[in-house]
Protein backbone atom coordinates (compact mmCIF):
# COMPACT_ATOMS: atom_id res chain seq x y z
CA UNK A 1 0.00 0.00 0.00
CA UNK A 2 2.85 2.39 0.75
CA UNK A 3 4.23 1.81 -2.73
CA UNK A 4 0.94 2.83 -4.34
CA UNK A 5 0.65 5.89 -2.09
CA UNK A 6 4.20 7.11 -2.67
CA UNK A 7 4.18 6.32 -6.41
CA UNK A 8 0.97 8.24 -7.00
CA UNK A 9 2.05 11.09 -4.72
CA UNK A 10 5.43 11.38 -6.47
CA UNK A 11 3.74 11.48 -9.90
CA UNK A 12 1.37 14.26 -8.81
CA UNK A 13 4.16 16.20 -7.12
CA UNK A 14 6.42 15.85 -10.16
CA UNK A 15 3.59 17.14 -12.35
CA UNK A 16 3.08 20.10 -10.00
CA UNK A 17 6.80 20.93 -9.91
CA UNK A 18 7.10 20.69 -13.71
CA UNK A 19 3.92 22.67 -14.26
CA UNK A 20 5.07 25.35 -11.83
CA UNK A 21 8.41 25.60 -13.62
CA UNK A 22 6.80 25.90 -17.06
CA UNK A 23 4.32 28.51 -15.80
CA UNK A 24 7.27 30.68 -14.84
CA UNK A 25 9.90 29.96 -17.51
CA UNK A 26 8.40 28.35 -20.64
CA UNK A 27 7.48 30.86 -23.35
CA UNK A 28 5.01 28.44 -24.98
CA UNK A 29 3.24 27.78 -21.66
CA UNK A 30 3.12 31.49 -20.83
CA UNK A 31 1.64 32.21 -24.26
CA UNK A 32 -0.79 29.31 -23.89
CA UNK A 33 -2.09 30.64 -20.59
CA UNK A 34 -2.58 34.06 -22.17
CA UNK A 35 -4.45 32.40 -25.06
CA UNK A 36 -6.77 30.77 -22.53
CA UNK A 37 -7.65 34.29 -21.36
CA UNK A 38 -6.00 34.26 -17.94
CA UNK A 39 -4.17 37.37 -16.71
CA UNK A 40 -0.44 37.20 -16.13
CA UNK A 41 -0.69 37.59 -12.35
CA UNK A 42 -2.90 34.49 -12.24
CA UNK A 43 -0.20 32.45 -14.00
CA UNK A 44 2.35 33.45 -11.36
CA UNK A 45 -0.13 32.81 -8.55
CA UNK A 46 -0.85 29.31 -9.89
CA UNK A 47 2.87 28.58 -10.24
CA UNK A 48 3.50 29.49 -6.60
CA UNK A 49 0.46 27.56 -5.36
CA UNK A 50 1.47 24.47 -7.34
CA UNK A 51 4.97 24.63 -5.88
CA UNK A 52 3.57 24.88 -2.35
CA UNK A 53 1.13 22.02 -3.02
CA UNK A 54 3.89 19.74 -4.31
CA UNK A 55 5.97 20.38 -1.21
CA UNK A 56 3.02 19.80 1.15
CA UNK A 57 2.13 16.51 -0.54
CA UNK A 58 5.72 15.28 -0.12
CA UNK A 59 6.06 16.25 3.54
CA UNK A 60 5.85 13.36 6.01
CA UNK A 61 2.37 12.69 7.34
CA UNK A 62 1.41 13.70 10.86
CA UNK A 63 -2.06 13.89 12.31
CA UNK A 64 -1.66 17.64 12.71
CA UNK A 65 -0.88 17.91 8.98
CA UNK A 66 -4.03 16.01 7.93
CA UNK A 67 -6.24 19.09 7.38
CA UNK A 68 -3.49 20.83 5.39
CA UNK A 69 -2.94 17.76 3.23
CA UNK A 70 -6.69 17.32 2.66
CA UNK A 71 -7.04 20.96 1.59
CA UNK A 72 -4.03 20.52 -0.68
CA UNK A 73 -5.68 17.54 -2.39
CA UNK A 74 -8.86 19.58 -2.78
CA UNK A 75 -6.94 22.53 -4.23
CA UNK A 76 -5.06 20.40 -6.74
CA UNK A 77 -8.32 18.69 -7.70
CA UNK A 78 -9.95 22.07 -8.23
CA UNK A 79 -7.02 23.17 -10.37
CA UNK A 80 -7.35 20.05 -12.55
CA UNK A 81 -11.12 20.52 -12.98
CA UNK A 82 -10.58 24.20 -13.86
CA UNK A 83 -7.89 23.21 -16.34
CA UNK A 84 -10.27 20.77 -18.07
CA UNK A 85 -12.95 23.46 -18.35
CA UNK A 86 -10.46 26.02 -19.70
CA UNK A 87 -9.05 23.61 -22.28
CA UNK A 88 -12.53 22.53 -23.42
CA UNK A 89 -13.59 26.18 -23.78
CA UNK A 90 -10.41 26.86 -25.77
CA UNK A 91 -11.13 23.78 -27.94
CA UNK A 92 -7.73 22.22 -27.24
CA UNK A 93 -6.82 18.68 -28.23
CA UNK A 94 -8.41 15.69 -26.57
CA UNK A 95 -4.93 14.56 -25.49
CA UNK A 96 -4.72 17.36 -22.96
CA UNK A 97 -8.09 16.38 -21.50
CA UNK A 98 -7.07 12.72 -21.29
CA UNK A 99 -3.87 13.68 -19.46
CA UNK A 100 -5.83 15.83 -17.01
CA UNK A 101 -8.32 13.03 -16.30
CA UNK A 102 -5.44 10.58 -15.75
CA UNK A 103 -3.87 13.05 -13.32
CA UNK A 104 -7.22 13.38 -11.51
CA UNK A 105 -7.32 9.60 -11.15
CA UNK A 106 -3.77 9.52 -9.79
CA UNK A 107 -4.61 12.32 -7.36
CA UNK A 108 -7.64 10.39 -6.11
CA UNK A 109 -5.54 7.23 -5.69
CA UNK A 110 -2.94 9.18 -3.70
CA UNK A 111 -5.62 10.60 -1.41
CA UNK A 112 -7.36 7.26 -0.90
CA UNK A 113 -4.11 5.51 0.00
CA UNK A 114 -3.03 8.32 2.31
CA UNK A 115 -6.28 7.81 4.20
CA UNK A 116 -5.84 4.01 4.24
CA UNK A 117 -2.27 4.23 5.49
CA UNK A 118 -2.44 7.00 8.03
CA UNK A 119 -5.98 7.27 9.34
For this entry, give a set of tags.
119 residues; mainly alpha; 5 helices; globular
Detailed description of the structure:
- There is one protein chain.
- This protein is mainly alpha-helical.
- The protein has one domain (2-118).
- 85% of the residues lie in helices and 0% in strands.
- It has 5 helices and no strands.
- Helix 1 (2-25) packs across helix 5.
- The chain is globular, with a radius of gyration of 15 Å.
- It starts with a helix and ends with a helix.
- The relative contact order is 0.16.
- The mean pLDDT is 95.
Short characterization:
The protein is mostly helical. The protein has helices at 2-25, 27-35, 40-58, 66-89, 94-118.
Q: How far apart, in Å, are the first and last alpha carbons?
A: 13 Å
Strand count: 0
Separate helix tally? 5
Runs in which pLDDT lies below 50 for 5 or more consecutive residues are none
Mean pLDDT: 95
**SSE run:** HHHHH
Number of domains: 1
Amino acid sequence: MKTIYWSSTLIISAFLFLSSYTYLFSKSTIDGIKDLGFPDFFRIELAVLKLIAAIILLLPFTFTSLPVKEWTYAGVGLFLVTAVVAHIAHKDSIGIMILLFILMGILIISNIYMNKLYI
